[in-house]
Specification:
14 helices; mainly alpha; 302 residues; 78% helix
Length: 302
């Protein structure tokens, strides 16, 4: 299969997983400390990627190319631990609607970092599509929050979430760089989830919250496993995608997630379909149609 086509398809699948995770989380609610929840999921998913790496290495019957450990450590610290800690801390200090909107600004930062650090070529058509999709996101959001209040009345939680989003965009850029240099996407995913999870457990230990981990019930463990399965699919599709196509293109396709959430919520939970969300969805879909046809290139012409 064509690398561009496969990478684009994987980015869309990532958006689908992200989109359906929102209504699913309403069903599988985990009453658990977010930091512990994230750390446990990270270790579980990291171990799965470690097994996949070993299987892949045995199948290839030759050593996988490895890049500098500094890339992998940076991915773990920036994206796998610090960003998660900031994001969940921010959610406790602001509303979920504001947090969700701020998190969806990731393509803006990812495009900027990819252009500066990876020398990705950003055609005008891609910029116009990004503006259209982001405008669609704003239109979809105004029925829940007033985006203007984010700038006129910012909260500490808002700054933490936007900081986490910037860190995730930076981590995606580093991950793409590592894979361009030959690192396997399974290794990158393992570093992000497992090493990041270990760092989060260190933070849990510093704050003396291991008692909450020991007190987990069987139903909570079941919910953690369900959530881990969803996140595994997201990480699996996402890192495979940015191994094949530009980060700027892949991150833009993540803006399809709110549209998927809208459709899933309407189908599974009987939620209404306001006109503003319908209009916003149309803009996002139009922009995505343009993005799909853009070929991933570097500014050097590669």
């Amino acid at each position: 299969m064509n690398k561009e086509y496969l990478g684009t398809l994987l980015a869309i699948l990532t958006a689908v997983v992200s989109g359906i995770s929102i209504p699913l989380n309403k069903i599988f609610v985990v009453d658990l400390d977010p930091l512990i929840f994230t750390a446990v999921r990270g270790l579980i998913i990291g171990l799965v990627f470690l097994v996949l790496t070993i299987v892949q290495k045995n199948r290839l019957k030759k050593p996988m190319k490895q890049v500098s450990w500094k890339y992998l450590l940076a991915i773990a610290v920036i994206g796998g631990s610090l960003a998660f800690a900031m994001f969940f801390s921010g959610l406790q200090l602001t509303t979920s609607g504001r947090g969700a909107f701020l998190h969806k600004t990731l393509p803006l930062f990812a495009t900027l970092f990819a252009f500066i650090f990876l020398k990705e070529k950003i055609p005008k058509k891609q910029l116009y599509a990004l503006l259209a999709m982001f405008a669609g996101l704003v239109i979809m959001t105004v029925s829940q929050i007033e985006p203007g209040l984010l700038w006129s009345n910012p909260q500490v939680g808002d700054f933490l979430i936007i900081g986490a989003t910037i860190l995730w965009a930076l981590e995606n850029t580093i991950a793409r760089k590592a894979m361009i240099e030959g690192e396997h996407n399974f290794i990158v995913a393992f570093s992000r989830m497992f090493i990041g999870g270990l760092i989060l457990f260190g933070i849990v230990g510093v704050f003396g919250r291991f008692d909450a981990l020991i007190a987990l019930t069987s139903s909570q463990w079941a919910n953690i496993l369900v959530s881990s399965g969803i996140l595994f699919c997201y990480v699996f599709f996402w890192y495979w995608s940015i191994k094949l196509i530009n980060v700027s293109k892949a991150s833009m396709l993540l803006l399809l997630a709110p549209v998927i959430s809208l459709i899933a919520g309407m189908s599974w939970l009987g939620e209404p379909l306001p006109m503003l969300q319908l209009a916003g969805s149309a803009l996002i879909l139009i922009g995505a149609c343009f993005v799909v046809g853009i070929k991933s290139r570097l500014s050097t012409g590669v």
